[in-house]
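Exercise 7. Given the encoded structure of a 262-residue chain, write a plausible sequence.
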């Protein structure tokens, strides 16, 4: 299993017409650690994720994966370099089984040529079987979803669908795993299970984890570093304990969520 890479965001601006979505955003996610990005609604969290993923080209600044500048690297090529993500809204392929969805995550690692793949020649069959065995051994068992692997994702409850999406990202053999609100909409038991799996990914696989999440309790429990955004700017960065006491963070979270920071 490959070790996690450092991820660095350096002075990133993002503008849409006259709107400044991000302004001089800089932070680093240490290799093999869990880094969280938090902030009120509209703070720019999703914009940061989409910029790192390559969906939005930054107006200024750069993104580094390890020692490589990937600012101009296409989305698919970032995946090949070890960057994987999940989405806030579940993006599974309906009408397909759990196993089929997860295997799709690993297809970018296959080396079979297009002709062999289309004709399903021996090389393609062998590689497909090897991928299935790897997914079943390293991902399905790891996330405790063996009992649902042949079910259609359409019949699964919400919490299990989120776990399948995590499994598909893990099948990409990531070195940096980006999780966009991984426990949004989950009940307490489902949240605790997902938090456990995220920590297991970080501790057992050595993957660098970057997550955006509104559940402050989970963020403070599993993160080693927290970055706080407000109105497209970084207003605080540090350990959970440091961020919890930061006056600008407390001000930004005045209201219901401020209690979670206490």
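Solution.
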């Amino acid at each position: 299993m490959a070790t996690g890479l450092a991820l660095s965001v350096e002075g990133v601006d993002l503008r849409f017409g006259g709107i400044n979505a991000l302004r001089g955003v800089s932070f680093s996610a240490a290799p093999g650690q869990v880094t969280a990005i938090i902030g009120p609604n509209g703070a720019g969290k999703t914009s940061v994720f989409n910029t790192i993923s390559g969906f939005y080209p930054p107006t200024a600044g750069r993104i580094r994966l390890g020692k490589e500048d990937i600012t101009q690297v296409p989305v698919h090529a970032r995946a090949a370099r070890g960057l994987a993500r999940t989405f806030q809204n579940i993006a599974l392929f309906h009408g397909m089984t759990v196993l089929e969805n997860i295997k799709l995550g690993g297809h970018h690692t296959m080396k079979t040529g297009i002709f062999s793949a289309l004709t399903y020649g021996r090389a393609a069959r062998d590689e497909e079987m090897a991928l299935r065995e790897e997914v079943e051994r390293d991902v399905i068992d790891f996330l405790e979803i063996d009992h649902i692997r042949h079910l259609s994702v359409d019949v699964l409850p919400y919490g299990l669908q989120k776990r399948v999406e995590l499994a598909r990202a893990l099948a990409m053999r990531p070195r940096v795993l980006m999780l966009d609100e991984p426990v949004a909409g989950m009940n307490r038991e489902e949240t605790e299970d997902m938090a456990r799996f995220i920590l297991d990914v970080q501790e057992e696989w050595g993957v660098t984890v970057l997550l955006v999440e509104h559940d402050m309790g989970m963020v403070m429990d599993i993160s080693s570093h927290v970055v706080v955004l407000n109105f497209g700017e970084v207003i605080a960065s540090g350990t959970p304990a440091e961020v919890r006491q930061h006056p600008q963070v407390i001000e930004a979270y005045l209201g219901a969520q401020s209690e979670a920071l206490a």
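Remark. The chain has eleven helices and ten strands. Students should compare their own answers with the one above.
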